[in-house]
Amino acid sequence: MLAGIKHYFRPENISDFQDMSREYSGRFRVLAGGTAINRFFQPSASRDVLIDIRNMGLNKISIESGVFRIGATVTINELIHFMRDFCQDGHFGRALIALGRACSTIASEPLRNLITVGGNLTHLFPWSDLPPVLAVMDAEIELNCGSRLCSYSDYLKSISSNSVDAGELVTSILISLPDGISDFRTAFYKYSTTTFDFASMNVSVCAHFSAAADSLSKLTLGIGGIGRIPRIFDLTEYVIHKSGEAISLDPEVQADELAGVVMSLFEIRNMRAFSDREIMASVAREIITRQIAEVLL
Fold it and tell me: Sorted alphabetically, which InterPro entries does this protein's record hold (predicted)?
């Protein structure tokens, strides 16, 4: 499988990683969970170096000062187990429900013991269900153990434009939790032909509220599975008409109208489940409507 690899390194800290990434610039691949190495990593004369980051201490999860910090090499199952323990008393249940649902739909149980959160967010494989979830939640990523922070949405844009610096390593994912002044609710649904299949479409929604007035301040929707980069829609401006009146006082009706807005902006491509575009559009609208209604109700 790795016959073409000439050099294998296992740094213990970010300084060692940076030294190796500079020395072998353009030649290395990062190894974490390793689930995609056989399918997507093709050793060659120009790509003959593996840098294994599993010994860098990036496998920790913590909640401090209202920030949920997830290390890049935390596996999907490790995150699931942490969230089950942490949310068992109802802590931040509606805020983190989309993250929990997305994790539980990724691949199969054995593979979730290997797939890492960082790998799922950065490599954007067909089974990457986390990107739209973290994007709509306004998550941030920490690069090189704190040398730089950026929003995950901006990081996706840099992937899309091929402007990611290979020497910058995603080391943590940061999610700001509800603080009593503001609150947010999330929803997630994955549509696939089988339980363990890649998503034909997954939909993530995040609604931010002012806790004092219980009023909606931001509504974001993300659609993944239809291309390498998820599509993100800010629906806040559509919740209120230009006249200043709400689209509808009924959240379910409002959700259906907002789904119509999304479908008018969104062209479905690369469909895996159906060859009939009209059928997929109908399915997509129903999924989007239900997920928006869940966060508004």
Answer: Diverse_Substr_Oxidored, FAD-bd_PCMH, FAD-bd_PCMH-like_sf, FAD-bd_PCMH_sub2, Mopterin_DH_FAD-bd
- Residue 16 exposed, middle or buried by CB count within 10 Å (0-12, 13-18, 19+): middle
Token readout for 247 is 């689209």
| CB of 54 closer than 8 Å to CB of 32 | yes
In-domain check, residue 2: no
Structural domain contains residue 117: yes
* 44 and 18 part of one domain: yes
Last residue in a domain, options 17, 34, 52: 52
Residue that terminates a domain, selected from 118, 151, 176:
176
Percent pLDDT > 70 in the chain is 85
> Distance (Å, rounded) from C-alpha 97 to C-alpha 2?
39
- Whether 242 has a pLDDT exceeding 70, the answer reads no
Within this chain, do residues 192 and 164 fall inside the same structural domain, yes or no?
A: no
| Tally of structural domains, the chain | 3
- Range 109-120 burial, b when 16+ CB lie within 10 A, else e: eebbeebbbbbb
**Residues 149, 140 contacting (CB under 8 angstroms):** yes
In a domain, 1, yes or no: no
Q: Identify the CATH number of the domain in which residue 216 sits.
A: 3.30.390.50
Please say whether the beta carbons of 33 and 114 come within 8 A: yes
Domain of residue 150 covers 61-176
On the question of pLDDT at 39 being above 90, the answer is no
